[in-house]
């Protein structure tokens, strides 16, 4: 299967030079090897900035920002001078500094890599050289930690509202079908799950000789970290960092490895279906699968074509629809990371199945589609993706967030059917009912879901207005200086999305050629402009 993941997501990565298919049995650390005087180049990412330092901008730049109502933030502040000094004490000479990334580039030997990774102010290291393979690593003490960049999405979906209502996914069984779960039992963010024996059963459909412990302690390919990150995005909580990464912290889990990682071929679809049926046999009603098929197969003849993303051509889409219609399973699927791929762009399978909940990814600030997130095919008569949420590192990590969201709903009312849970998730989303094929109905909001569970009326946050001609001035009530606007050719399909400036409480809309409707996203309100 093609992983729904940009492997640059690991801020605690270790970069190694290896050949595809090489096994690394029982690996806890992975190390680089064989570098000469011209050591590989890396980004060294820092955890924080010195908030007392002025932004690294000229007065001209600051004036322009203020004129455009773009506030200054920590990305404008320079990299900490103290961090640079400590790196130099380690013999590391920074090459370039990035205030946006809060990072510096440098060439590191194997020994320097380990020394720098252990520094308390270093969040992680990423390769710049394209030949380097990126993967997760353990901490120097042998434990593992999950990237802190998952935390912002918890605020976006209002995780605290579920927590206050006592909804943590307790008594809900969740299946996770993925590529591997290496190190999951020692990850700081997942220790609470394993301490209460929250992982009940595991199955390896790639290597059926593996035991329960082998799945967590044997590394065959770099993909074997993927399921660990996904599991953390569903249930992760790190008491040391006081950070919550997922909503379903008290759920029970059934794990299946179906992806081989070192090659892509359609034979893995059988693994996926077998895992689905296994989980169905155990009574699992909620399954996350951050995997999918599109192109990129080792044998190009096995690639799908975009026209085949129709909800019924692929075997796994048919299986997923059966699971939804006949088995009562809610399948949460990542929409895909092909949005920037001009030869594809759309979702892949099984996200195309009507009965699954396909999850896209949004930007952090505007909540519109982040570039890589796959788009729903215009040929489909139904909405895809269904909803979205923030993920900087792929829809692999947005889907499990919504899986945790679903688990909280299912805990609150175990009698709800899979389709009723899906309906609540869609109706709780911030753009509902004005969805589109970029982000679906938008970002689910816990406060709205709780109101729907209690049969309480939702606040009136959606309205429509009519407009004529080529332009329209829309009064808006928002504290945001810039808002997201979706220009649509019809009720569902996007012509383009745009970030627009709010000026004196008004938004100056210009109608594009072929535009029939325009969705204005104010986060707390959505306005649908219907052009006549």
From TrEMBL:
Keywords: Hydrolase, Protease, Serine protease, Signal. One of its GO terms (molecular function) is serine-type endopeptidase activity. It comes from the Bacteria. One of its GO terms (biological process) is proteolysis. It holds the Pfam family Peptidase_S8. Residues 172-442 form the Peptidase S8/S53 domain. Gene3D superfamilies: Peptidase S8/S53 domain. Residues 1-18 form the signal peptide. The active site is at residues 178, 226, 396. Belongs to the peptidase S8 family. PANTHER family: EGF-LIKE DOMAIN-CONTAINING PROTEIN, PEPTIDASE S8. This is S8 family serine peptidase. It comes from Spirosoma endbachense.
């Amino acid at each position: 299967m093609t992983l729904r993941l940009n492997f640059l997501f690991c801020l605690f990565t270790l970069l190694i030079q290896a050949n595809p298919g090489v096994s690394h049995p029982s690996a806890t650390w992975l190390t680089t090897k064989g570098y000469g005087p011209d050591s590989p180049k890396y980004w060294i990412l820092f955890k924080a900035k010195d908030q007392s330092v002025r932004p690294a901008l000229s007065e001209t730049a600051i004036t322009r920002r203020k004129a455009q109502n773009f506030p200054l933030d920590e990305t404008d502040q320079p990299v900490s001078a103290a961090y640079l000094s400590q790196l130099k004490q380690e013999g590391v000479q920074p090459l370039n500094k990035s205030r946006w990334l809060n990072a510096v580039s440098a060439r590191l030997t194997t020994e320097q890599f380990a020394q720098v990774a252990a520094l308390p102010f270093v969040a992680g290291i990423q390769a710049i050289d394209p030949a380097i393979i990126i993967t997760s690593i353990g901490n120097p003490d042998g434990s593992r930690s999950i990237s802190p960049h998952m935390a912002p999405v918890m605020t976006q979906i209002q995780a605290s509202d579920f927590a206050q209502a006592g909804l943590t996914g307790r008594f809900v069984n969740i299946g996770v079908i993925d590529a591997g779960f290496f190190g999951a039992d020692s990850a700081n963010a997942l220790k609470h799950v394993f301490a209460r024996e929250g992982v009940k059963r595991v199955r390896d459909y790639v290597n059926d000789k593996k035991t329960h412990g082998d799945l967590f302690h044997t590394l065959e390919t770099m993909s074997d970290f993927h399921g660990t990150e996904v599991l953390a995005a569903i249930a992760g909580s790190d008491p040391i960092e006081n950070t919550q990464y997922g909503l379903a912290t008290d759920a029970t889990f059934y794990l299946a490895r179906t992806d081989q990682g070192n090659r892509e071929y359609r034979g893995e679809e059988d693994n996926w279906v077998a895992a689905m049926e296994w989980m169905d046999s155990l009574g699992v009603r909620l399954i996350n699968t951050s995997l999918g098929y599109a192109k990129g197969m080792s044998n190009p003849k096995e690639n799908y074509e975009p026209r085949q993303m129709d909800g019924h051509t692929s075997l796994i889409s048919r299986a997923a629809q059966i699971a939804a219609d006949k088995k009562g399973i809610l399948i949460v699927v990542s929409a895909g990371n092909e949005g920037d791929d001009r030869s594809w762009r759309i979702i892949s399978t099984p996200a195309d199945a009507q009965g699954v909940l396909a999850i896209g990814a949004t930007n952090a600030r505007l909540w519109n589609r982040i570039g890589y997130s796959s788009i729903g095919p215009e040929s489909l008569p139904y909405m895809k993706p269904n909803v979205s949420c923030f993920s900087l590192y792929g829809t692999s990590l947005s889907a499990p967030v919504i899986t945790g969201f679903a688990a909280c709903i299912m805990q609150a009312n175990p009698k709800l059917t899979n389709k009723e849970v899906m309906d609540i998730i869609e109706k709780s989303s911030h753009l509902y009912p004005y969805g589109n094929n970029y982000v679906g109905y938008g970002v689910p909001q816990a406060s709205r879901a709780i109101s729907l569970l209690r049969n309480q009326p939702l606040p009136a946050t959606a309205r429509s207005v009519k407009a004529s001609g080529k332009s329209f001035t829309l009064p808006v009530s928002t504290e945001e200086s810039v808002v997201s606007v979706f220009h649509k050719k019809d009720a569902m399909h996007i012509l383009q999305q745009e970030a627009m400036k709010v000026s004196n409480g008004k938004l100056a809309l210009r109608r594009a050629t072929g535009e029939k409707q325009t969705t204005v996203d104010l986060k707390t309100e959505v306005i649908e402009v219907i052009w006549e």
